[in-house]
Amino acid sequence: MLSSADMAPMDMIRSARVLSSSQSIHKQVYIALLVVADALMLALAFTVAYWLRFQVGITISPDVAPSIEKYLQLVAFLLPCWLFVFMLYRLYDMNLLLGGTSEYSRAFNASTTCMMLVVLVSFSDERFVIARGWLAMSWLLAGFFVCLARFGLRHGAYLLRRHRSYFVTPAIIVGSNREAIALVEQLQQTSYSGLKIMGYVEAHDGEDLGKLLSQNFELPKLGTLNTLPEAVAQLDIREVIVASTALSRSQLLAVFQALVKLPKVEMRLSSGLYEAMTTKMNVNVVGAVPLMSLNRLRIRGLESLWKRLLDCVVIAVASPLLIPLFALIALLVKLDSPGPIIYRRRVLGVGGKQFDAFKFRTMVTNGDEILAQQPWLALELATNHKLRDDPRITRTGKWLRMTSLDELPQLLNVLVGQMSLVGPRMISPEEAKEYGIMSSNLLTVKPG
Description:
- The chain is of the alpha/beta class.
- 53% of the residues lie in helices and 12% in strands.
- The strands form three sheets. A five-stranded parallel β-sheet has the order 3-2-1-4-5, sandwiched between helices. The protein has a two-stranded antiparallel ribbon with strand order 6-7.
- Strand 2 (195-202), helix 6 and strand 3 form a beta-alpha-beta unit.
- The longest helix is centred in the N-terminal third of the chain and has 47 residues, at 10-56.
- It is globular.
């Protein structure tokens, strides 16, 4: 049983249970939107390919085109098959969505698999006549349109996660040592992790995380290993993250046996090499023994080239819409308050190389004077590193921050290769000192 000292406050219990109950609904809605978006993008790809092949006349081979009715029947058959292959590639598995670039590569690989199946059927059945030019264009357009739609949906999900706490899963940390501290601070400072750490369960002979964590974090103790199931049930926890170096082998087995009886709870075990701060680990079976290999970079080789190409293509395709929007926002910023339109922030890129990240200015230029006139605001800023009601933010700036449109000029950083459309949070040289060894994890790939 949980002691009264380890009982979570009622507001925390309500908050955790609301997150647990709502996140499953949010995920189901998101998956449904993905299915609809994929179907629409595939239909668009097939239609544009038909128009390019038979109306514009772009062709790869002199194949005779079947009637439009035959192509409509073909598309009606291909759509569900394509979506089924997407499901096999786990493109509707929330555990593999909303993070990293593997979603886009799997979407492209799934489209390639579908195309190869269609080619195989066309070669094996002479009655199945299909223009190879249309098929090749459909393959390229399907991969591009699907990735573009998924990028847009993911960005929308990130906005909802940041401002409405959608797609956020309540989690607890098991362990109370230095690795547990690193796990908490990394997960809480990474906005795209999708986890809200509700508290920690203390291991025997562990330390008090509440005292060891920096002042930016408040983490309540939720009990010990013996009361872990009760803490999980009380807060309706869905993710249990175990700091492996904080527990003995027998304790790890006991935690596993306690959680295996709870089907809705996902148990995640840290590598135990967290201080290495690598961005990716590969698990390979060698002689029936699972061994981990560490990579310095998450993205390299052809994957890096593909990601760079995708960044440039997406910006080029969206530029007819982005350029007028950019001009409108620049005008609003200029009319709202005197000062420059663009704000430059010195940040760190790959390998710690410094560059200026561009943003639309969202604050007045005399912000220091305002803080000097209102010292209580300066005290709040020094304590919390932010102001609840910041008078320095302009009217246009509030709207830009709420919609994240203030980051639109960073597309220029993407074009010159300093940033990527998808990547970890960028940090300044001052923040890198606060992150300590964790900063090396963020500086192995381009910020996004």
